[in-house]
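Before relying on records like the one below, remember that each one covers exactly one chain. Contacts with other chains, cofactors or solvent are not represented anywhere in the record.
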Amino acid sequence: MVVKLLTGMPPTVSIIVPCYNEEKRILSLLNALFSQTYDRSRLDVNIADGNSTDGTLDVIAAFQRDHPELRLQVISNKIGSIPAALNRAIEASNGDVVLRLDAHSAPYPDYVENCILALESRKGENVGGVWEIRPGANTWMARSIAVAAGHPLAVGDAFYRHARQAAYVDTVPFGCFRRELLEKIGKYDESLLANEDYELNARIRNSGGKIWLDPAIRTVYFARSNLQALAVQYFRYGFWKLKMLRRYPTTLRWRQALPPVFTASLAILFVLSFAWRVFGWLLLFEFLAYFIILMMVSLKNAVFRKEYFLMIGLPLAVAVMHLAWGAGFLWSIFSEKWIS
């Protein structure tokens, strides 16, 4: 379907996707891209694969054979990191506009169209939308994790997880921007193994640009399927957030400061409680207050959604997100001060 967005020729759009062992999810993304309302002849898809060891490449090859109308190429990402993958994909593409997606995502059919409309309307130098978070597996724990990943108690004011109105924000997931912007501020920072989107958006804002989030730009995002994978993900987020904040300290938000403060307070009170009983009582008070808040939120969600497993799964998921993120952040401080 051809959608006339401009008075002239619509811009060409290069979609860049980092990928590693995504056999179960990559087809959902590819089908979603093939179904875009934007002129397919103006699209090209660039998947940077970090040496996948499952059937990811076979799935992509089969899709290419069945859908030759969509230009698609696989680029080797020998380094294996996400920012390296994004940069290799950018270097291999040549569209007027670069649109970053994830192998765990499935954009709505009008995703590209709405991104281009926002760019052409000069809403911002980088535009993006909201995640519609869905379970990564058909289990009660995966469902609980998906609910937690979109709840303000777990993610604070990360508007791209629950925004209902368009607004200027500090970051958007993925993002869509003109290629010329990268020539001005540079590509993704390959020294960061996480928070690469946030760091890029910090440079955009420092250069005078704006970040625009519009809930009309929507993508399904599949959350982690179990607590172990969730803990690894959020520990990595916390660890690399400190590295990014050392370069851009003014970008610190309260939602990012609370998990390490909370995690550190629990650890400190626990240690001190062996010497002074009062700290044991303080630890108990903090734990009970946190537990009561988690259970109140979980009860409300369980009743509203009529999914009563959330009474167990939601507090577990939220606690893992907070503690893993906080522990990763604190370990990053420790490793810099005493190990390096």
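The two ends are 55 Å apart (CA to CA).
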